[in-house]
Design brief:
Mean pLDDT: 76
Radius of gyration: 19 Å
Strand order of the largest sheet: 2-8-7-4-5
Structural class: alpha/beta
Bound molecules: copper (II) ion
CATH superfamily: Cupredoxins -  blue copper proteins
Number of helices: 3
CATH architecture: Sandwich
CATH topology: Immunoglobulin-like
Number of strands: 8
Strand content: 15-25%
Helix content: 10-25%
Shape: globular
């Protein structure tokens, strides 16, 4: 699936405009007008600080609109992107893309559950299958550890 993302919407500084949920292997296409680019940031710290050290350009650094990136890795992984032009990143032109699964979940339902933290979104996979009680004897051994 290709998700087309308006790459200048983050200037609104509305937090929800700076986040996106995708399925593993989805492609995100950044679209814009004017002079912008797309960099994948090293990590969340770099993303929050608009620090481009260790970042990698997606496409050419002054590509015209239409840069595409396949988002692929484990569930719950967050990929961070920002524009390196001028102070655009500080102005809100940034995007955190979270992978929420491989395609079997309803993306709209999950949307309601994420967005408040960077917690692993794998929690949303928990369903009604919790009726099986943990084994009592063996679990004592396992938790005996280092406490
Ligand atoms: Cu920009």
């Amino acid at each position: 699936m290709i998700t087309v993302f308006n790459w200048t919407i983050g200037f609104s500084e509305v937090e929800e405009h700076q986040k996106l949920l995708v399925l593993d292997g989805d492609m995100v296409e950044f679209l814009w007008k004017g002079i912008h680019n797309v960099y994948q940031m090293k990590d969340k710290t770099a993303f929050d600080a608009c620090d481009f050290v260790g970042s990698k350009p997606v496409g050419k650094t002054f590509e015209t609109s239409g840069v595409r990136q396949v988002i692929k890795s484990a569930d719950g992984t967050i990929h961070y992107f920002a524009c390196k032009v001028g102070s655009h990143c500080f102005g809100g032109q940034e995007l955190a893309i979270t992978i929420i699964g491989t395609g079997e979940q309803d993306i709209r339902e999950v949307n309601a559950l994420v967005g408040t933290s960077d917690q692993d979104t794998r929690d949303v996979n928990v369903d009604s299958d919790q009726s099986s009680a943990p084994p009592t004897k063996d679990s004592d051994k396992m938790s005996a550890g280092t406490r």
